[in-house]
Specification:
single chain; alpha+beta; two-stranded antiparallel sheet; 4 helices; elongated
């Protein structure tokens, strides 16, 4: 038995109109969509997405400024080559590190 091809809901505006009609109809989602030739999964998906979008949040979102309570330590990176260590901080110059590693490699 062939099942009739049902069309998807085109956009949000159409979905809202159909969902409003469904809400005032005594029909189930399946019966409503079947009568109109609409894919029930498409309308159900729109219903879920629109419900999620309009769901109230648990609380108002607010930004909170974070202030360090103590001076932050600078990060130190250590590169080990054999038994030689090269340490640099966050503000190191990459070209200088490359020259240092070349010098260590040459040893």
């Amino acid at each position: 038995m062939d099942t009739p091809t049902r069309r998807k809901v085109h956009d949000e505006a159409e979905a809202r109109v159909l969902l409003a009609e469904l809400a005032s109809s005594p029909e189930s989602l399946s019966a409503f969509c079947g009568r109109l030739g609409i894919d029930g999964r498409s309308l159900a998906c729109w219903q879920r997405n629109l419900t999620r979008r309009t769901r109230p949040t648990a609380g108002a979102v607010r930004l909170v400024e974070l202030v360090a309570s103590s001076p932050q330590r600078r990060a130190v990176y250590r590169v080990l080559v054999g038994d030689v260590a090269v340490e640099v901080e966050d503000d190191f110059v990459a070209d200088t590190l490359v020259r240092l590693l070349d010098a260590v490699r040459a040893c």
